Amino acid sequence: MDYHVHNKLLYHLRKLCVPQGERVNVIREAHTSLILGHFGVGKTIAQLQRYYYWPHMNEIVSRYVKGCYMCATRNPSNRKLGLYTPLPTPSHPWENISTNFVWGLLMFRKGHDYLYVVVDHFKKMCVLMPCKKQVTTEQTAKMLFHNVWVHFGLPTSIISYRYSRFIGKFSVTALAKIPCNKS
Ligand SMILES: [Zn+2]
User: Fold this and answer.
1) Residue 162 Cα, ligand 1 centroid: separation in angstroms?
2) Separation of 65 CA from ligand 1 center, angstroms?
3) How many CB atoms lie within 10 A of CB 21?
4) Contact 62/86 with Cβ under 8 angstroms?
5) Ligand 1 centroid to residue 68 C-alpha, Å
6) Where does 96-176 sit in CATH, by number?
7) Averaged confidence pLDDT in the chain
8) Could you tell me the distance, in angstroms and rounded to a whole number, from the CA of residue 123 to the centre of ligand 1?
9) What tens digit of pLDDT does each residue of 59-90 get?
10) Ligand 1 centre from 9 Cα, in Å?
11) Which of 13, 60, 103, 108 sits most deeply, having the most CB atoms within 10 A of its CB?
């Protein structure tokens, strides 16, 4: 018998059967990694197959990943018409960084409910900065300056995954904060 019930949950060959309404949440969780970004179809399916089962899983996951907006705008192979150029390969740490806001986490101390995440592309090191949802451009620039640039130097490129419009204003503000008259 392929199916069995344990603690009121249905299993198929020891894999938990996920109800239809929950599948998208489970896929999103398997597809997205805070540090490593978004996984491809194969890796997402492999992650899910370790614990879960539902009919036509491969097809549904493949459709989800192919329709992922973040992947479509980030993955160079998905970009069309040369609107974006591939990132240069970094030769040392903190030369190319990406920044992102993450929310939906537990509330931190001081009522911080957002996390500003900066990832170095060279060694995949990351700096996490708790902040509030209402964080301003100036505050973000300050966080980046004090927690990243002061320690690791000025990056040559910054990618902001969630706020591509935001980064333009942000970079100008952030650059304005760099002391230029230091000897
Ligand atoms: Zn994605």
Assistant:
1) 12
2) 6
3) 7
4) no
5) 5
6) 3.30.420.10
7) 79
8) 21
9) 999 999 988 888 887 765 554 444 444 566 77
10) 29
11) 60
